[in-house]
Write a structure and sequence with these properties.
This protein is α+β, with helices and mostly antiparallel strands and 288 residues long. It contains eleven helices and 14 strands. The strands form four sheets. A five-stranded antiparallel sheet has the order 4-5-10-6-7. Strands 11-12-13-14 form a four-stranded antiparallel sheet. A three-stranded parallel sheet has the order 1-3-2, covered by helices on one side. Strand 6 and strand 7 (143-148) form a beta hairpin. Helix 9 (227-233) runs antiparallel to helix 10 and helix 10 (240-252) packs across helix 11 (264-285). It is globular. The structure holds flavin-adenine dinucleotide (FAD). Flavin-adenine dinucleotide binds next to strand 2, helix 2, helix 6, helix 7 and strand 10.
Length: 288
């Protein structure tokens, strides 16, 4: 339970952090809230020789509105997302999903950037980001680039981040006013990762689904965008037959591992149950 030795660096600017990570090379890792990385180091599943703490870089914090989009700094904590008035009004699914992460202690320290950059299929925010069509802004020694969340996740703990790159912020177009949303998560107890979870954002027009987007958590090596399921629902009135068909389509793209959260088939079925619940709650919240 004791990590290997490492050198600790605390740069004051993004520029310094990028230079440090570039100079220190592959043995260096960015440190955000430390609530995924430090446990991995204690278990000796990660053994970086240098930690570059991003906590001293003020520019990476906060939630703001910019040109009709919401921009969230990577070092914004999950606790801050739960309580952001701006998110509560504009993109409430982010506050709802954040509140289902772990427990208050973890949420006080854990950041949105760490949660989405980590690449752990158990993390809750990546599927929500897929559902919302978010864009990640990353900076490295080669400059800045933007990566769609939907193209970011390549495998368990493998993402499109190049070595030394820092995720600086997440940009999300505000969903239409009156949209319905829900994040439904099955967990064994408070503080647990999802057995399966589903994120839904939809709009209704004259009792028919006008748009729909669905993300799934922890039922594959990466978060999943359930495109076929969403397509089935568009134009429907979310009647039982359409929901059943969509649930089957969503279940079909899952490939969970059997683990201490249950056998693979159970977790697939639970993804379907979470999706049906999320659709029902999103429908109740949507204004035509
Ligand atoms: C008991 C417990 C229960 C938990 N339960 C849940 C849960 O239910 N749902 C859930 O989603 N999470 C859960 N977590 C994880 C928690 O949300 C973490 O805080 C989060 O996954 C990582 O965020 P962090 O800020 O702590 O990142 P860190 O642990 O500091 O970093 C994680 C990884 O991301 C990299 N990284 C961090 N920030 C950046 C950046 N800006 N740019 C580039 N790379 C970066 C780091 O180098 C590292 O590889 C739990 C954690 C604990 C300890």
């Amino acid at each position: 339970m004791i990590p290997g030795s490492f050198a600790y660096h605390r740069p004051k600017s993004l520029e310094d952090a990028v230079h440090l990570l570039a100079d220190l090379g592959e043995e260096a890792r960015a440190l955000a809230g430390g609530h995924s990385l430090i446990p991995m180091m204690k278990l000796r599943l990660a053994a970086p020789e240098h930690l570059v703490d991003l906590a001293g870089i003020g520019d990476l914090k906060g939630v703001r509105e910019e040109g009709g989009d919401i921009v969230i700094g990577a070092m914004t904590t999950q606790h801050e997302l739960v309580h952001s008035a701006l998110l509560g009004t504009k993109i409430p699914i982010l506050s709802e999903a954040s509140l289902l992460i772990a427990d208050p202690q973890v949420r006080y320290m854990g950041t949105i950037g760490g949660n989405v950059a980590n690449g752990d299929p158990g993390n809750d925010m990546p599927a929500v980001m897929l559902c919302l069509g978010a864009t990640y802004h990353v900076v490295g020694k080669g400059g800045e680039r933007r990566v769609a969340a939907r193209e970011f996740y390549e495998g368990a703990y493998f993402t499109a981040l190049e070595p030394g790159e820092i995720l600086t912020s997440i940009r999300i177009s505000v969903p239409a006013a009156g949209h319905g949303y829900a994040y439904e998560k099955l967990k064994r107890k408070i503080g647990d990762y999802a057995t399966a979870a589903a994120a839904v954002v939809l709009t209704m027009n004259a009792d028919k689904v006008a748009s729909c987007s669905i993300g799934l958590t922890n039922v594959a090596e990466t978060p999943l965008l359930a495109e076929e399921a969403a397509k089935i629902l568009i134009g429907s009135s979310l009647d039982a037959a359409a929901v059943k068909k969509a649930v089957a389509a969503a279940e079909a793209i899952t490939s969970p591992a059997s683990d201490n959260r249950g056998p693979a088939r159970y977790r697939t079925k639970m993804a379907g149950v979470m999706l049906a619940r999320a659709l029902s709650r999103a429908r109740l919240r949507a204004r035509a």
